[in-house]
Design brief:
Helices cover 37% and strands 13% of the residues. With 378 residues, the protein is an alpha/beta fold. It has an 8-stranded mixed beta sheet, with helices on both faces. Helix 4 links the parallel strand 2 and strand 3. The two termini are 24 Å apart.
């Protein structure tokens, strides 16, 4: 396509930093660039410890291990999310409990969580869709009263905040994604954020294959051995080097994306005012990061027609998640509690438009023009 849906971010120093790793013969995990990226996240979010991982999926698996999720437990989350959010807990033997979303933000409906809690519930997993924060005050209050963990899926939330607090740094554990489709990328990668320092040593052990090798290297123990179940969640320092080149320019990338988001919104507002589409809603207490720009069509058929029309004009849009509770695995490992009023309906209307760092105004304006053409609004 002439206008792609996504172009991975690139600042120009990625090759230089990767070459440095190679020249210094330090390409495995926990090298200098991993340390720099961890420190950047800690400084930006205020968490006690951040640990780069091989993916956001693996960061979530680590959170499930740290929370002691086991067979027979229940974990509450929205069905409108990527499969990794559920997989991390299903792998521990837990049952995933889905509740409905809010139609305004596409986030979990905080008012439906409490009625889904049973004696088996161990954790709530809010997913900050499109980098717009869930209603965390209510979620934290529920978790505190029921003695539950809060594990934030902030895969799309780097540089976004809720009431001034960084997404991913509000609950017990938070998870970031640095996949190639995200605002900041290392190809495949993620990070685990720890707000409470009491979990730091266990997290380091889990991440290093269940051994205390890292603690040994830090001089905290006199020898290292297998301590507990874990896995190889360490990314290569070359991946971290690629990421760090973008973290150095995080503000520039964020501002660039926000300018695209605002341009889309202003240009498509007339369609909204005519009742032809709906535009994203960002609550007053949230500062988003322009991870995506989406519109909502009238229904599934209209959306599919718009996708076909844009593609015929060399523009690649994207729909998003198929709700997990309706999937083959979802029917086996999960349960939807309460009524599905919005999850399926809203997911079938949502369409994501091209959005990436250094998207040109000319290309963005052409996307807008083609959307208006489809609606015969010129």
């Amino acid at each position: 396509m002439r206008i792609n849906f996504n172009v991975p971010p690139f600042t120009g120093k990625e090759y230089e930093y990767i070459k440095e790793c190679v020249d210094n013969q330090k390409i495995c995990g926990d090298g200098p660039y991993t340390a720099k990226a961890n420190e950047w996240i800690e400084n930006k979010t205020g968490v006690k410890k951040a640990l780069l991982t091989t993916s956001c999926t693996h960061a979530t698996e680590m959170a499930a291990l740290l929370a002691g999720i086991k067979e027979g437990d229940e974990v509450i989350m929205p069905s409108y999310t990527f499969v990794s959010t559920a997989n991390a807990f299903v792998l521990r033997g837990a049952k995933v409990i889905f509740v409905d979303i809010r139609p305004d933000t596409m986030n979990i409906d905080e008012n439906l969580i409490e009625q889904a809690i049973t004696t088996k519930t161990r954790a709530i997993v809010p997913v900050h869709y499109a980098g717009v924060g869930c209603e965390m005050d209510t979620i934290l209050d529920i978790a505190k009263r029921h003695n539950l963990f809060v594990i934030e899926d902030a895969a799309q939330g780097v540089m976004a905040t809720y009431k001034g607090k960084a997404l991913g740094a509000i609950g017990d554990f938070g998870n970031y994604s640095f996949h190639e489709t995200k605002n900041y990328s290392m190809g495949e990668g993620g990070a685990l954020l720890l707000r409470d320092e009491t979990y730091v040593d266990d997290a380091i052990i889990i991440r290093e294959k269940g051994t205390n090798r890292t603690l040994y290297k830090l001089g905290k123990v006199d020898k290292y051995s297998w301590i507990q179940p874990g896995s190889s969640y360490l990314p290569s320092d070359m991946n971290a080097a690629y990421l760090y080149a973008q973290l150095e320019k995080a503000e520039e990338i964020n501002n660039d994306r926000l300018s695209h988001w605002n341009r889309y919104y202003e240009a498509l507002l007339p369609l909204k005012e005519k009742g032809l589409i709906e535009l994203p809603i960002v609550p007053e207490e949230c500062v988003h990061n322009a991870h995506m720009f989406y519109i909502k069509c009238k229904d599934f058929e209209e959306r599919q027609g718009l996708i076909k029309y844009l593609m015929s004009n060399d523009i690649l849009p994207a729909s998003h998640y198929v709700p997990l509770h309706s999937s083959k695995a979802g029917l086996i490992y999960s349960e939807f509690r309460g009524e599905d009023r919005y999850t399926t309906r809203e997911s079938e209307r949502l369409l994501r438009l091209p959005m990436y760092y250094k998207l040109t105004d000319e290309d963005l304006d052409e996307v807008v023009m083609r959307v208006k053409e489809y609606y015969r609004f010129t």
